[in-house]
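Hi F.,

I've been meaning to write this up properly since the lab meeting, where we talked about keeping a consistent format for the predictions we share between groups. The idea is simple: the sequence comes first, exactly as it goes in, then the structure tokens exactly as they come out, then a line or two of notes. No screenshots and no reformatting. I'm using this chain as the first example so we have something concrete to point to.
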Amino acid sequence: MFDRTTQDIGNIVEFGHVNVRVPDQRLAVIFYVTGLGLTRDPYLLTGVDNAWINVGTCQFHLPEAPAQVLRGTTGLVLPSLDMLMGRLERVAPMLAGTLFSFARDGEVVNVTCPWGNRIRVHAPDAARFGPIVLGMPYVEIDVAPGTLEGIGRFYTEVLAAAVTRGTDAAGAFLRVSTGLNGSLVYRETARDLPPYDGHHVQITVADFSGVHRRLLERGLVFEESDASQYRFKDIIDPRSGAVIATLEHEVRSMRHPMYARRFVNRNPDVTNLFYATGHEAALWHMPPH
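Output, unedited:
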């Protein structure tokens, strides 16, 4: 017999982007494009005051303004950690004097952006991340102790999301499915959380009106963006109504014009010095075998 529940993804069908403001577009491009080896979107937001950075089927959005720092860690999968280390070493002199740092720990490279955002880069691993070779399989959010149960109720009852609990070497966590190969992971921390600075994530939901209605009943919608998008930021415990976490969510419908948009991803190993025709594009998915 098959366990059919293994195929459920819940109401959140897509994770779109992490948005953090950056004060210097030049340094942002050096870090995200030249260092990490990601791809600046060639079609949208191509000016000097914002950059959309493609990573598989997800993005970083980097509008220019005083820096924002995600209260947590963004997880990436990149094809080669050896090549990544080489790129990071080459950009290090250009990022001197910032918070940029990196260190390898086996099959993980821990990277800090010039303004303090933490990024954990993994090698491809089908057992952990499915077929992803290039992508953003999770965003990990730090939250206050004693909040996981309430956060789980919020995502289950208000967003109708698929939620699981687990424990690993870092402790207990709550995983919220955000589509085929992605998740928001909430972890309790005893460290003092910095004040929330307005960074946000974007998700797409299937039951767009149902989520909107349940949020509206609780007074949580703070922006009615347009017909296919709205925003909320307070996460409450449905039992008490108390705010237990804050993370702005840009919520889109499956009729949003950019839903499931296909992103251009380049192969950063192909350069003007090491060029091979036909190898310019990177695939985010493992081959059939």
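Notes:
Helices lie at 25-35, 81-91, 126-129, 148-157, 208-217.
Residues 8-253 form a domain with the 2,3-Dihydroxybiphenyl 1,2-Dioxygenase; domain 1 fold (CATH 3.10.180.10).

If this format works for you, I'll send the rest the same way.

G.
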